[in-house]
């Protein structure tokens, strides 16, 4: 018999061998390792290409909804969005940035949406503002939360913030509950809760105000907005500025800045005259760096800069130094400027938070591996005791081990970060897997020799009815966990389902074949 | 060739009523325990912070228990020491002001090794999803079983066994003071899949094979008991090793599966067998 014929005859075993080989390559070969979109290698994965989730690697996970209010089914004509936004914002006395109007599908009547992206407005106030803007709305028309588009935008901004942060690695994704509520899930390996919350908690809308005296008292005029900025330098801590970043304005921004500085008197009487830290009620001429409405730094307009603005040379070299109290502050400023503003505030208290110390996680990783191994040994022992013939028990244990190996290969191939739930799923798969192998073995070994291939086939098929039926019920039972996004158990469900599928389609048929080879040549 | 590790039950000596009496009585007792819990506390099981909302802190400290309580402004719901790790405690709060709790722990000199917090609203949502999830899984399994057997009594036998396989562990959780967590919900769902295996095997042998009822039952038992005992062994080992190493989640999943599989042994070979025998000898003619 040629080698090809042999492969063809025992295709079930051949398929298993091929898949085990592929798994080995995916698991151990360099080059199959996980990498992020930027191509930079993420966390060290050890000797294998397996990725580990937070519960086995340590770090912080924040799951939070975005705060805001949304009214759907309103008449918003395309082209009128800006007008509606400013009208509603004025009614509520909030910034127009925190009101978004979307027209929806043009053919559908009343398909527009208006959302508020700040936590300061109550449902009643929003209803009143909508009524004042001639919308006929009732109490049930306003829901808490923001639109899906806003959530998607927030995910992008937060991703950017994390990738610009000192720890760089991290993942942000959207998760939607069965009731349609959207959450933003932020996972940062290795970092503690406070560090992560500090980074993402603020929306990070950075502005520079020109705070100056007028005849009727002090006024704030916007001097620099994120739109005005062309490029941002690295954070540095050097005299004479202290911790700072150097930013370059674009042409329009430089012109605006020059105009505001000249019109408000900064370049004349205002030069070097800021006393913000001494006297906030009468501080003189101050450039205030403001993040989400809070002043984080104050500075005067320097003499040389004032001269350059007066002479008109500034527009040709529009550099501006943004200072901060500490290098961390400046770094955060830079992140906020680069990533932009989170489109709505994160309501961290309304979600879930999780932190695990990396060293404890390492313990869990090792210990859960041992747990899994001991469980497999226990199963192997039970099987060996029950079927004292090594020809039956040996392949059974090997097949169960192959099943786990294939599942690990699957995890590495799709880059699924393993967590405790997934490990529990693995152990469950060993359990169901061995159950099915026992069914096959008992069916084939029943009284009467397996003398011919025909007898074997018929017994194998009978065994498979039960196995298939049992697999189908397990998959049905696990599917709610996989699809309902029930907390952190998706891994458990996913691996149980995939494990059962691998078992029914590949490993268990192969075990039948192995038994056939071993038993029909037994005489 | 096949050894005799599996006991031979002389089914013919007992009537169907006698066989079914024990599992039905245990099922009724379990439902009573759950109902009692419901009346006493307002929930059928004790929900953990996954469902009620709250904060759980794992801390490391040499301080005695009393000092741990004193360190926090809000009173902890519970303080559990981890049996195998000295000076490690899991402190649970109803409050979700996680930042403040973490700060108080750090100020008291405790090393915080793990934090997990869930808001009450999110917990309620999770609870709703868990109930819906278990319901969908159970109904899905029932429909599938009905489609596979296409006869009333054998299908009902499987579904009733599976129902009891879930109810008995839940009652045992109440008795042993095990909280309902996402892990235990997963275990209950897994039980739906696991427990049906041996019932399917039994029904298949009795209904779809030629041969005497008792012989078919005996064959199915020989295979089925090996299966279930192997699974119990795997779960028992997982539970004890994971408890020893203080790994979260795994012990909860393991112990509930052990409860359920033990219940399954009884339900399959007493309840399901008696229903099948009734169906085979008396029910078919009707």
TrEMBL record, chain A:
Extract the SUPFAM superfamilies matched here: Multidrug efflux transporter AcrB transmembrane domain
Q: Write out the coiled-coil annotation as residue ranges.
A: none
Instruction: Give one Pfam family, short name only.
Output: SecD_SecF_C
Q: Quote the subcellular location field of this record.
A: Cell membrane
Q: Name one GO cellular component term.
A: plasma membrane
Identify the InterPro entries for this entry.
SecD/SecF_arch_bac, SecD_arc, SecD_SecF_C
Instruction: Write the record's keywords in alphabetical order, separated by commas.
Output: Cell membrane, Membrane, Protein transport, Translocation, Transmembrane, Transmembrane helix, Transport
Domain (Protein export membrane protein SecD/SecF C-terminal) spans: 348-505
Q: Name one GO biological process term.
A: protein targeting
Q: Which domain of life is it from?
A: Archaea
Give the record's membrane topology: Multi-pass membrane protein
* Membrane spanning stretches: 12-32, 366-385, 392-414, 420-442, 463-483, 489-506
Q: What family classification does the UniProt entry report for this protein?
A: Belongs to the SecD/SecF family. SecD subfamily.
Oligomer and partners: Part of the protein translocation apparatus. Forms a complex with SecF.
Role summary: Involved in protein export.
Q: This protein is called what? A: Protein-export membrane protein SecD
Q: Which organism is it from?
A: Halalkalicoccus paucihalophilus
Q: Which gene encodes it?
A: secD
UniProtKB/TrEMBL annotation, chain B:
Annotated membrane topology is: Multi-pass membrane protein
Span-the-membrane segments of this chain are 20-40, 128-149, 156-176, 182-202, 223-247, 253-271
- What's the chief localization of this chain? membrane
- SUPFAM superfamilies noted in UniProt: Multidrug efflux transporter AcrB transmembrane domain
> GO:BP terms for this protein?
intracellular protein transmembrane transport; protein targeting
Q: Which residues form the Protein export membrane protein SecD/SecF C-terminal domain?
A: 106-280
The entry assigns this protein to a family as follows:
Belongs to the SecD/SecF family. SecF subfamily.
Q: HAMAP family attached here?
A: SecF_A
Q: What is this protein called?
A: Protein-export membrane protein SecF
Q: Which organism is it from?
A: Halalkalicoccus paucihalophilus
At the highest ranks, the source species' classification is:
Archaea, Methanobacteriati, Methanobacteriota, Stenosarchaea group, Halobacteria
């Amino acid at each position: 018999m040629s080698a090809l014929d042999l492969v063809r005859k025992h295709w079930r075993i051949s398929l298993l061998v091929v898949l085990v080989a592929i798994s080995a390559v995916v698991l151990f070969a360099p080059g199959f390792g996980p990498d992020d979109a930027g191509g930079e290698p993420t966390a060290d994965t050890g000797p294998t290409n397996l990725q580990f989730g937070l519960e086995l690697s340590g770090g912080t996970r924040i799951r939070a909804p975005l705060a805001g209010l949304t009214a759907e089914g309103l008449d918003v004509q395309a082209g009128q969005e800006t007008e509606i936004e400013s009208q509603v914002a004025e009614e509520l006395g909030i910034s127009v940035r925190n009101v978004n109007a979307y027209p929806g599908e043009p053919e559908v009547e009343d398909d527009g949406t208006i959302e508020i992206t700040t936590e300061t407005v109550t449902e009643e106030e929003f209803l009143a503002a909508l009524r004042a803007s001639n919308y006929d709305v009732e109490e049930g028309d306003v829901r808490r939360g923001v639109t899906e588009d806003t959530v998607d935008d927030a995910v992008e901004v937060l991703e950017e913030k994390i990738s610009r942060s000192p720890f760089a690695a991290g993942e942000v994704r959207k998760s939607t509950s069965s009731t349609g509520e959207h959450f933003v899930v932020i996972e940062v390996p290795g970092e503690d809760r406070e560090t992560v919350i500090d980074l993402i908690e603020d929306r990070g809308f950075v502005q520079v105000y020109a705070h100056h005296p007028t005849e009727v008292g002090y006024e704030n005029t916007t001097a620099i907005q994120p739109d005005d900025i062309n490029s941002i330098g690295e954070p540095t801590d050097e005299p004479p500025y202290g911790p700072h970043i150097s930013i370059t304005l674009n042409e329009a921004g430089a012109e605006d800045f020059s105009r505001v500085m000249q019109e408000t008197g900064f370049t004349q009487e205002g030069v070097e005259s800021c006393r913000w830290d001494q006297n906030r009620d009468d501080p003189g001429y101050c450039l205030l760096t403001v993040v989400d409405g809070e002043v984080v730094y104050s500075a005067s307009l320097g003499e040389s800069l004032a001269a350059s603005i007066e002479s008109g040379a500034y527009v040709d070299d529009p550099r501006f130094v943004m200072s901060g109290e500490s290098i961390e502050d400046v770094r955060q400023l830079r992140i906020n400027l680069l990533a932009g503003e989170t489109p709505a505030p994160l309501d961290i208290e309304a979600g879930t938070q999780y932190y695990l110390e990396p060293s404890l996680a390492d313990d869990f990783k090792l210990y859960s591996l041992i747990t899994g191994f001991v469980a497999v040994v226990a199963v192997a022992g039970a099987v060996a005791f029950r079927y004292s013939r090594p020809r039956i028990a040996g392949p059974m244990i090997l097949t169960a081990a192959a099943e786990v190996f294939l599942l690990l290969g699957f995890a590495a191939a799709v880059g699924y970060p393993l967590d405790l739930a997934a490990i529990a799923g693995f152990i469950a798969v060993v359990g169901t897997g061995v159950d099915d192998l026992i069914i096959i073995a008992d069916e084939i070994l029943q009284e009467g020799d397996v003398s011919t291939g025909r007898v074997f086939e018929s017994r194998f098929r009978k065994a498979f009815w039960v196995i298939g039926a049992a697999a189908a019920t397990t998959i049905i039972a696990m599917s709610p966990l996989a699809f309902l996004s029930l907390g952190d158990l998706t891994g458990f469900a996913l691996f149980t389902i995939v494990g059962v599928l691998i078992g029914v389609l590949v490993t268990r048929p192969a075990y039948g074949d192995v038994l056939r080879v071993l038993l029909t040549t037994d005489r | 060739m096949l050894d005799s590790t599996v006991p031979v039950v002389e089914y013919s000596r007992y009537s169907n009523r006698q066989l079914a009496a024990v599992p039905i009585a245990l099922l009724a007792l379990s439902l009573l325990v759950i109902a009692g819990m419901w009346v006493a506390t307002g929930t059928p099981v004790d929900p953990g912070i996954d469902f009620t909302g709250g904060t759980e802190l794992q801390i490391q400290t040499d301080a005695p228990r009393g000092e741990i309580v004193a360190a926090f402004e809000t009173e902890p719901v519970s303080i559990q020491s981890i049996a195998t790790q000295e000076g490690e405690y899991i402190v649970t709060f109803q409050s979700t002001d996680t930042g403040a709790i973490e700060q108080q722990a750090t100020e008291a000199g405790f090393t915080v090794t793990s934090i997990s917090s869930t808001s009450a609203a999110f917990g309620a949502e999770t609870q709703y999803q868990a109930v819906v999830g278990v319901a969908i899984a159970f109904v899905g399994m029932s429909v599938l079983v009905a489609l596979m057997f296409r006869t009333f009594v054998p299908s009902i036998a499987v579904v009733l066994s599976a129902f009891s396989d879930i109810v008995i562990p839940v009652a045992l959780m109440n008795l042993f003071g095990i909280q309902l967590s996402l892990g235990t919900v997963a275990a209950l769902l897994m039980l739906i899949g696991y427990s049906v295996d041996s019932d399917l095997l039994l029904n298949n042998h009795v209904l779809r094979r030629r041969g005497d009822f008792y012989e078919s039952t005996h064959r199915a038992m020989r295979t089925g008991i090996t299966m279930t005992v192997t699974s119990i062994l795997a779960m028992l080992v997982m539970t004890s090793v994971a408890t020893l190493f203080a790994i979260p989640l795994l012990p909860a999943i393991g112990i509930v599966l052990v409860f359920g599989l033990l219940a399954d042994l009884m339900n399959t070979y007493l309840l399901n067998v008696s229903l099948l025998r009734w169906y085979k000898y008396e029910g078919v003619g009707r």
